[in-house]
Amino acid sequence: MKILNNKKDLENNDLFIFIPKFHKIVPLKFNINVNFEDLQEIDDQKKIILDNTINFLNNKNSNNILLWGAKGMGKSTLIKCVAKHVNSNFRKKIKLIEILNNNILDLVEIICELSQSKYKFIIFIDDISFNSNDNEFRLFKSLVEGSLLSNIDNVKYYITSNLRHLSHKENKSNINQLEEKESNQNLISLSDRFGAWIGFYDSSQEQYLNIVKYYLKKYFIKYSSEIEKSALRWSLEKGNFSGRTAMQFVNNVLNNYK
After folding, report:
1. How many CB atoms sit inside 10 A of residue 196's CB?
2. Structure confidence by residue, pLDDT tens digits, 114-146
3. Which residues contact 257 (CB under 8 A, 6 or more apart)?
4. Phi, psi of 83 (to 5 degrees)
């Protein structure tokens, strides 16, 4: 059974999602309303993923990428924005396919079919984590590096997780030193197979306010001491200074200006 409906879907679309109920990859029609340039306070991370994606597109050395770290700092948004940016600026196109994190077992069939296409694909899996003894953990580890399917040259994995090593450490009692070492090695054995790690860290108050200022300016709203106080109250209620919190505050301001 074909997972892709037809060749025209690939020709006419750049964004896709795998629907397990129908066992199909289907195109998505929506506008990503944030641009690559709009992502603030993560310039180093942006450069790594953009350079890697351009290299992949141009058949140069490129890596599977793990984006890990603090929540709300733009990991998944960066993946979507870099695909949009590249497709807007280059003649060749990247096809971004989201696989939900509970559909890992379908990847073998998906990758086999994609390998027969002329297009370049980024497999995007958001907010992924495993127990290190899961079947999905062992399979995905092999697919990233180890299996024959790891050598498919038109597919890369861009994965996000709050966990640096994608997996939770097993809590075992009465474990000896050798078993502890083996357990630790197994814990990092998946993340270690990604050629590039991109870390995201909690923003400072200054960085948070810089993001707020940027988006207010973009929407022609004057920044003031009163808005700053409101932005800080908002961050206290949310419990962090993340980019997501900054955007939610700005959206709230925009709603009040309508």
Report:
1. 15
2. 999 999 999 999 999 887 667 888 899 999 999
3. 221
4. -65, -45
